[in-house]
Structure formats: structure tokens, C-alpha cells
Amino acid sequence: NTVIMSIFMIEDFNSPVSKYLSCVWYLDSYKLLSLVIFQCLGDQRS
Question: Taxonomically, which superkingdom (predicted)?
């Protein structure tokens, strides 16, 4: 749950990282974390 707090703080900043964290927070699942990372990375590369 601490991770979610960090994501919120980062989301405050208008950085591309916030987008990547947003995906992770959306799922909020360590098991799907790997899948989220790949999806986020693909979005940024797009």
C-alpha cells in the first residue's frame, strides 16, 4: 500500500514517469506488475 502513496506523490508532477506509475497503481497487483510495466513501456515508445 505504501507504493500507492508514492505513486500519488509522483503523479503530482507532470512527468512521463507518472504515466508509468499510473498503470501500476490501476492494477495494484504485484503479479500483474510485470505485465503493466511492458504495457506502459510500449505506450511511451508508441
Answer: Eukaryota
In whole angstroms, give the CA distance from residue 13 to residue 21: 12
Q: In angstroms, rounded to a whole number, what is the distance separating the alpha carbons of residues 40 and 20?
A: 5
Number of residues that this document lists for the chain: 46
On whether the CB atoms of residues 10 and 18 are closer than 8 A, the answer is yes
Give the model's pLDDT for residue 46: 43
Q: What pTM did the predictor assign?
A: 0.19
Please give the full DSSP string across 19-44, using - where no structure is assigned.
HHHHHHHHH--HHHHHHHHHHHHHHH
Distance CA 37, CA 15 (A): 16
Q: Is 11 helix (H, G, I), strand (E, B) or coil?
A: helix
